Structures are given as C-alpha cells and as structure tokens.
Amino acid sequence: MLKFGELCVNLQPKLDKTILMKQIKATFMLLAAMIFVASCAGSSSNETTLYGEAAITAFSVSKAKRTTTTESSDGTITTTTSTYTATSYKFVIDQLNHEIYNPDSLPEGTNPSRLLCSLTTYHNSVALFKDLEEEDTWFYYSSTDSIDFSSPRQVRVFSSDGTGYTDYTIKVNVHQETADKFVWTDMSYVDGFAELDGIKVFYDDDKFYVFGNYHGVTTITSTTNGKDFNYDISSINFGADAWKNTALMMGDFYVLDNNTIYRSPDAITWETYTIKSDKPISRLIGASTFKLYALNSDGELIASDGVLEGSKETVWEKEECSDPSVPIPTEDVAMICYPVTMADFSEQVLLVGNTEISFGDHNYAFVWRKIIDFNLDLSWGLWTYMDRGDSPQLTLPRAKDITLLRYDDSILAFYGKTNGESSTQPYATMLQSRDNGITWKTSSAYTMPTTDLEPTMVSGAVDKNNNIWLFYAGGRGEVIKGYLPRVAWKNN
Predict the structure, then answer these.
(1) Distance between CA atoms of 74 and 72, rounded to whole angstroms?
(2) Is the dihedral angle over the CA atoms 188, 192, 198, 202 positive or is it negative?
(3) What pTM, to 2 d.p., does this model score?
C-alpha cells in the first residue's frame, strides 16, 4: 500500500508537520494541474472543475470477519470464522463535530482490526488515513485494503484543488456480548428473603416492591438497585397470605386481607375500603390499566374499577367469558397486562393458572385472554379461552407459582414444580410465547440463572431499561439481574 508520506517526505523523513502539510498541498496542486492538462489535451470541449470543499459523504463497512463459538448437546465446542457483509450497519456522519460512528454495533466476535470499508467523498476529495505507528504519516484509502479499526482512526480529506482539508474521526463499534445469550448477574443476598415462604414483586416509579410471607406475616420491602433495601414498616399488619392477594393499578397498590381492600401509593400508608360484591372475594389476582381482577367464592372472575373518588368502597361485577363450561384457573394464578402491538388504544390481559376441577386430560395450564379496546365500549371485552383442542404440544405446563413477564415483545413464563414431573427442577426453565399465550417454547436465548439454587419461590419484574430482576424466597435469598443484550441495547 502506497503511503502518502512516502510520496512527500522520502528524502526528508525528519520534516516537521508544518513542512509536511505544505508539501502535501503542493503535491495536490501538482496533481490538480496534471488532471487539468490531461483533460485539455484529450478534448478542447471537456472541462475539469476542481473544488475547494473537502468532506466525507458516506461510510460503511463492506466486509468483516467474525469468529463464533457454539457448544453442542454433548459439550463439544466448535469455533468458526466467517466473512460477512456489514453494509446493513449504518454509520452516522456528524459533519459538525467531524465524527463518524455506527449506533448499531457490529456483532460480537467481529474482528475490528481487518475491515474492508467503503468511503465516498464530496467532489472527488481525496481521503487519507493516519498511520497507527508512524507519526505524521498518512496512506491513501483503498476499498480493497483492510483497515484496522480496533481503535478510532483519524482520516484527512483533501479538497480536489488542494487548497484545504477536513479531519474526521471514525469509530467502529463492536458488541462485546452475544446478542441472543442471556446475561445474569448476582446483585445481593438478603437474609430476610431466605426466610420467606412466598414472594411477589412489583416495579413502579423506578423502584421494586417486594411482598412476602415472613414467619406468618406479610412484610413489604423496597429497593432501587437490588442491594440497598428500605425496611419501612407498613402501617397495617397484614396476614400470612396477603402477599399473594396484591395488585398494582395506576400507581396504587391494592391488598386483599380479611375481606377488606387496602390501597396505598407507597406500600407504607394504607387506607381501608369495604367490598361490594354479590359473593365474597377469595383471591385478588391482578390488574389491567383501569380494572382490578379477583375470584369470588364460587371461582368466578370478577372485576372492579378500584377506588372511585370520594368513595369508601370497591364495587365488583362478574366478568363475561366466551365458554362458561371451561373453568377459570383458581390455583397458581398469574396475570399480565400489556398493549396490543398492532392496534392503538387497546391492551390485552392474560390470565394463566391451574384448577382443582377435573377437565378431561387437561394436564397443562389454563390460559384465558381478554382484549380491551379503549375506543369501543364492548363491556370492556370478553374473556376468551385459548383452546388448544387436541394439540397439547407447546403448552404452558401445569406448574406451581407461575410468574409472567412482558419482555422483547413477547411473554415469558417461569415456574416451580410441574405436575407429574418430579425430575424437573423448579425455576430451571423459562418459556416464551410470541403469540399472546397460544404456544410456549423454550429458547436458547432465554435461560434461567444457574440451577444450583434451591428457592422456595421466585418472583420477578422488568425495569425501564429492559432488565429482568429475579427475587428469590428461600435458599440464599438471592437478588439476580439479567438481560438479553440485543434487547438491552435498545436503550443505549
């Protein structure tokens, strides 16, 4: 590769930078004159216009090499190096600060030291890269020569008339993590969590709220970082099962305890409300944006608008279901609410769980769904049973203590022991549903933390930065933070 410094300073290697720049300018003037003469000699009708502007107008990485490592089911590790086209990774050209960079990093395993790049200049400006080793030495850019971008590179672009130049810094970002491999980090061990018999976690206003059964009493703690915990004592002494009868709606926490509804904005100070319902409430399940959901003493699904302004009671009404012959889950119940992806002003509520009632050979979880359209008053939607018919494959198993999370435009589920599968280790499997609860699949990307943990129960929540936090009851009382890199990158 011809270095520009060789053209100018082979006879004077010790020239300072000022003299070198003068020689570069003189050389460009000579080259411009040669182009002009050649064009005149070829045809008197052709004119060559030289410009004083110098700029890079487009940049991309055309070819790159990537090394990947895979592990087979028998533990065999295979390493493969391949070449791929990287033009789909767009680069931003900041003409104000003269910086060029790619917001979407190249895949993990890419070798940045040997990249082929494509560079376009304004009005035939000439681009030179500064040498990494030899001071004040520059070499011509070539689309066929690999360039080392393991560190930011300085590029100098000279105008075609040789009267000026512009310096740019090009930075090629490469991911240091595998995009589709979950990353888990231990945040802390909490002695109090190790002694919990049950646990349920909420995330609201940049804070995690942990409800749990501690020696027969429901305790409430909060944390912002998974390490430092606020143990402010609740103004109400809740019973042992109150932790599971909880919901979060519009920034307020609701708890069902002793046939009374409690509401609090901070899980510390609570107000009490009576219940107006045809039948007693046996279980508070969860909430959508504007509705609380519960089960009555007959196992029917009921809903409430929560506490209305100026009222001291909550009013509950029975929900309509598409198939009354199919039981509503009453055990190991989990609920999640999230926006409908393809429609505005609407959301879906997913209800999963088990039931004591025998229902044929139904050995997997019951899944019900409700779509709420805020533009239409369709009695707030109808609960529809996600009937799998004679195809029990890819179902959510009949399992204990199911937790649902919304993540990566899908629903994730993890759980304790499964019915009739004593060999299955609790909380070792995470399932993903991309079709709103119809099918549930394992994925190489979604893996639970190490299986040597022995919790009584696990609950979790997703923070605003697309991190999943798991809080362990029993065992060592772990708090574990995890994320899928390609999902977390969206916030960077």
Answers:
(1) 5
(2) negative
(3) 0.74
